[in-house]
Design goal:
Two copies of one chain form a homodimer.
Chain A (H helix, E strand, L loop, with lengths): L4 E7 L2 E14 L4 E5 L5 E2 L6 H4 L1 H5 L2 H5 L3 H7 L7 H13 L17 H9 L12 H14 L12 H14 L8 E3 L5 E3 L1 E2 H13 L5 H16 L1 H4 L5 H9 L4 E5 L3 E6 L4 E7 L4 H15 L4 H6 L1 H4 L2 E3 L5 E7 L5
Antiparallel strand pairs in A: 1-2, 1-12, 2-3, 2-10, 4-7, 5-6, 8-9, 9-10, 11-12
Helix pairs in contact in A: 4-5, 4-7, 4-10, 5-7, 8-9, 9-10
Chain lengths: ~325, ~325
């Protein structure tokens, strides 16, 4: 019944902690290439589906109407670190719609990136909604709303026109049924729909290949992948998983982390979509799981595979920089 | 085989993440009052045993020789937030031994407390070893070393006189065998010895009651409990579990969190020692587990029990402050 142990944290010669989880590797037509753990149980993808949530902004033509840049499109898919560049880009997106941060309904938090947070504190300022890691996604919602001719106020509500478009895009990509009983509220106040991991993986296979999507949506998916591949720092931040993996691999992979231990990825060249969830919500475990799957299914040469090793088996250092342990894959991922 | 699910994180009507774990409630003579999960498996207590590690400083007479204050003794048991007060207290401890931060071997990190870290950044400064959350423990080691007439340099090594004393005190309190094969290196570079959860709980029963300890060690344990009860902000920091629970309950409980999902506690009035470990290393789960055990075994009136509810079932808020879920106990703790 319990999902298998998939990641272990060692200290010295002993296992200090262990993470259980599930994962799926799926083709766009739904064929399962690999699955471990309960991949039918519904999980909240959280921010891992930001690229799917950004599809309506592009496929509707709103992004082109407002002249959004690739960097701005990448920010619409981002859980950004709250650096100066991220904030400036979010502000610019809103300006294209004739708005400013007062329209944002995501709430305020200190930058997700520790260095970015300290830089803001050092400057003597405090954060506003633009620093929220979801501000690019929300700015995208505002842009879409304005081009649709709909008042943005209340755009986070499930029955707002924007959220209806977003839910329809997620449902079309994943094949999941986004009913009210599957719905929670995300950290940034928008609806969060739970769905089976296998549907999530399929959604990413379709995001990666365009297969099974309408022509407009297929084009939008390609535009998003290209924008993020060109701006990996925009989609997360320095030192963070999505940014570092995509900086290393380029357009070979599109990876997106969500809160509570979810990571999804597309490997467009192979046609595969991947999704993992650490049962306990640990990001460190989900990232190791995903790195192991990317390495296994990415079709890399030995040199590239070796460069993925720091993500598959991160070293754990003490404050003097000495290695005291590691994360490592276990069970079906060992 | 797998430990039971003991804490669940909900979002809307669904369980988003779940934590497995083990826990033990034990009397000083070793009698088990409650146990769930595998309590014989060795776990690293990490910072949860700082009070045991501080015993030699007191029982040797070193603290009295140097005139350490209660606040300084509390800091010797602390995983502090790196606030101005914490740093000043650590500096003062070292000054009593005629030393300064250059003697510390714990390494440097930005303050554990987010607000404290931003305050430091805002001041334009960067951290030194005094900001390390373990600086009080290390300052205590330096004090002990100096009073013993031993050169402090290398005091983090397992064979340094200080670490031998520390290991002896832990072994005496817990009854655990601290052999080399049970040893890893902690985040602050000192030895970390793994031991069964049940031994850890017993050590805290003895720390709480003095039962089974030498007269000097019993007196030292009482001094440490009183010092921490008088200075709950010193031992962690504002908003953190140990500080908040001890601020609420006073000397009724001595609680100490360690990294990777460990919390230990003594309930001196009941004679009980408590120890929990979240399998996955999640602090949020371990704190909920411990809060539930404290509430169950603390013998509280209804009003006090109700005031523990925010620790037993913390609300999860989005960035607008709306409740989107909760942590809650499950399985043997439900």
């Amino acid at each position: 019944m319990a999902n298998p142990v998939v990641v272990e944290a060692t200290r010295g010669e002993r296992i200090e902690s262990a993470h259980r989880g599930a994962g799926a590797v799926v083709e766009a037509d739904g064929r399962i290439i690999m699955a471990f753990g309960d991949v039918e149980r519904a999980v909240y993808p959280r921010s891992a589906v930001k690229a799917l949530q950004a599809l309506p902004l592009i496929e509707s033509g709103a992004a082109d109407r407002l002249g959004l840049s690739d960097e701005e499109i990448a920010l619409a898919c981002a859980s950004h670190s709250g650096g100066e560049e991220h904030v400036a880009t979010a502000r610019a997106m809103l300006a294209r719609a004739g708005r400013d941060e007062r329209v944002l309904e995501c709430g305020v938090h200190w930058p997700l990136g520790e260095a970015e947070g300290r830089a803001l504190a050092r400057s003597g300022r405090t954060p506003n909604a633009l620093h929220n890691n979801c501000s690019g996604k929300h700015a995208g919602f505002v842009c879409l709303s304005c081009v649709m001719g709909v008042e943005p106020k209340g755009y986070v509500a499930p029955d707002h026109a924007v959220q209806r478009e977003v839910a329809a895009a997620i449902a079309a990509a994943t094949g999941a049924r986004l009913s009210e009983d599957m719905r929670g509220v995300d950290g940034c106040a928008i609806p969060a729909y739970a769905m089976p991991l296998i549907a999530l993986a399929r959604g990413f296979a379709r995001l990666g290949t365009g297969e099974g999507l309408s022509a407009a949506r297929r084009k939008a998916a390609a535009r998003i992948r290209a924008a993020v591949a060109a701006h990996p720092l925009t989609v997360a931040g320095k030192g963070r998983f999505d940014t570092e993996v995509m900086s290393l691999l380029g357009a070979i992979v599109f990876a997106k982390t969500g809160a509570e231990g979810v990571v999804c990825a597309a490997l467009p060249g192979t046609g595969l979509g991947l999704a993992v969830k650490a049962d306990d919500g640990a990001g460190r475990a989900a990232q190791v799981m995903m790195a192991a799957l990317i390495r296994r299914f990415g079709g890399f040469d030995d040199e590239t595979a070796a460069r993925l090793q720091p993500f598959v088996a991160p070293r754990l250092l003490n404050w003097n920089g000495a290695e005291v342990g590691r994360l490592r894959t276990a069970g079906p991922l060992a």
